[in-house]
Amino acid sequence: ETGVTQTPRHLVMGMTNKKSLKCEQHLGHNAMYWYKQSAKKPLELMFVYSLEERVENNSVPSRFSPECPNSSHLFLHLHTLQPEDSALYLCASSQGQVSTEAFFGQGTRLTVV
Amino acid sequence: LAKTTQPISMDSYEGQEVNITCSHNNIATNDYITWYQQFPSQGPRFIIQGYKTKVTNEVASLFIPADRKSSTLSLPRVSLSDTAVYYCLVGDRGSARQLTFGSGTQLTVLP
Questions:
Q1: Tell me, what's the pLDDT at B102?
Q2: Which residues fall within 8 angstroms of residue A41, CB to CB, at 6 or more apart?
Q3: How far is CA B89 from the centre of its chain?
Q4: Does B43 sit within 8 Å of A2, measured CB to CB?
Q5: Distance CA A23, CA A68 (A)
Q6: A9 Cβ contact partners less than 8 Å away, ≥ 6 residues apart
Q7: What is the pLDDT of residue B2?
Q8: Are B96 and A31 a contacting pair at CB < 8 A?
Q9: Yes or no, beta carbons of B42 and A2 under 8 Å apart
């Protein structure tokens, strides 16, 4: 248990569906991150929120839409995904301004069919 | 953001000490060096962080030479459960961008 909880753990969705991934942290951190990890590949940083403001967006397609309503919750809204979007999606949090370490959730295994 | 280079893979045997080296030639003055461990289908886990010289905790040691252009993660007496991917990250602790992962090193511990 890392203090970062992701739901659901597994998700199968069709290309025309809309779904959302949820991340919640109970660590009092002020920065949260979304990562994508495809099979046998390193983590790709998708989005960063620091103090609830998005500070980084690494050219992620618009079919991925993040939302950070407060410092404890982070969502990733998904729509019209492609099969190549199938991956492990990981959420992390850190004390953004004086970060010593990041804590990761267990991830959501997403399969797009 | 400083680029890091690590070996793609390493093999070791149980009970041995394992040293994984990371090169970061363009490390900046404010950058720290951080190592994470990742098991399959799990999120990475922080191992250790340092700025210079040597840092030791209950899990590992981190050796950083004076020029800081490289660092070595040392795992004492590895076991089968240490089989994982190990990532070296370099970045400014005050920047959220520090959490950019490279390809990592797949460590396989053999019986």
A1: 85
A2: none
A3: 7
A4: yes
A5: 10
A6: A106, A107, A108, A109
A7: 66
A8: yes
A9: no
The answer to whether A94 faces chain B, any CB pair under 8 Å, is yes
Contact B2, B97 (CB under 8 A): no
By CA distance, what is A104's nearest residue in B?
A: B43
What pLDDT digit, counting tens, does each position of A79-98 carry? Answer: 999 999 999 999 999 886 55
Residue B101 reports pLDDT greater than 90: no
Rounded Cα–Cα distance for residues B100 and A92 (Å): 12
| Cis, peptide link before residue B7, omega less than 30° from 0 | no
**In this model, does residue A100 exceed pLDDT 90?**
no
Q: To the nearest whole number, what is the mean pLDDT of chain B?
A: 92
Select from B42, B94, B99 the Cβ nearest to the Cβ of A102.
B99
DSSP A41-74: S--EEEEEEETTEEEEE-S--TTEEEEEEETTEE
- Cα(B109)–Cα(B44) distance, integer angstroms: 18
Q: Work out the average pLDDT over B41-65.
A: 94
B47-86 as b/e: b if 16+ CB within 10 A: bbbbeeeebeeeebbbbbeeebebbbbbbeebeeebbbbb
Mean pLDDT of all residues in chain A?
90
Chain A contact set for B92 (CB, 8 A) = none
